[in-house]
Model the fold of this input.
Amino acid sequence: SSGINAEYGGEFKIPRPTGGGQTHQLLSWAAEQLHWDIGFSYVYPQIYSELSLPDQEENDRMIEKGIAKVCNNLDILEKEYLHNLEWLLGSELTIADTSVACII
Done:
């Protein structure tokens, strides 16, 4: 045996969450909804002038709504996934955890 198996001993396994499409569902949600709400509704309008509204009061209102959306998304993650699990899809780290963490 070579590579990671030889160096660390044992067999290298990629975690396989139960439920089939759960990983895909979370990846899609993170890439679409979570990224939009965190990025375009909250962070980007504060740091990129081309992604902010011309009127500062309007921009501030959009950011306030973005904060509410971010809080709602974090509540969803906590209540629907993390309330009794170590990771989003169970007891092992998956690509869904990594993707969500990178966006947050």
Q: What stands out?
A: The helical segments are 4-8, 22-47, 56-82, 95-103. The first helix runs from residue 4 to 8. The chain has a mean pLDDT of 84. The CA atoms of residues 21 and 27 lie 10 Å apart.
